[in-house]
Amino acid sequence: MRAKQLKLIWFDPLLSDNESDRSQSLVQAVRYHLENYGLAFAHCADMDSVYQEAMVSIAASKMQDVRALVLLNADFAQNCAVAHYLRAVAPGVCLVARTPDYKEQTLMHALQSGVDAYFSGTVSPYFLSTLLFSRMRAAGLALPSSTQAEARPMPDYGWCFAEQAWAIVSPDGKRVRLTSSERGFILTIVQQPDMCASHDVLIDHLWPDTQNAKEGGRERMNVMMSRLRQKFKRKGLELPIRALHGNGYMFYGPFLEQRYS
Predict the structure, then answer these.
(1) What's residue 124's pLDDT?
(2) What residues are paired with 117 via a beta bridge?
(3) Domains defined for the chain, CATH in brackets
(4) What mean pLDDT comes out for the span 93-117?
């Protein structure tokens, strides 16, 4: 019998905007992490899509399979309206919403609409994943027992730099030495607020004085990524960097910041 696939509804109108690299990067990063735990994603770019997704699940008597809904919309009023509706039709769903600020009136409005947890401003993919898991646990929503994540559990500690960032150390202590370009590449990614860097940002950091860098920069990064993968593979490691579908690259997994000893 095929294992039941649980669902996460992600409401973010910016996902339909090709120019919204930050929104695209965040959803892709969280998706990489949560799909390991058996959560299927349903992307909704407008309120009608959210309601339709919920009604399909209700009609199929599978609303209990919807474990969480992330309200990433910048329009706080729409977030509250969606939360109020979902709380009525699916009382057990975990609702996490973005708020414009942490003012008491704003948070009261969110909580009264049925929101379980909230955040404001820019957050990292790892923080958002942790927030979702925390609220799902609090609501008694167990995750599937047979998952990729169980086979490869997340460590209690993370990756870190060593030797003034001329080497990177895996959570289990394996050390990989880096060339100057590889060092700059990884440093640039992890120093971004959400550990996601666009191609243009990486090219500007790696080859700032090259006139035609942008023309050949992506190809040079592809070659660098290929060599890095092989270098990590020889150490029995998987490179903790993922390509973001033409937008750039993301560091995947826990990282211990500012450790360069």
Answers:
(1) 65
(2) 96
(3) 6-150 (3.40.50.2300), 155-251 (1.10.10.10)
(4) 90
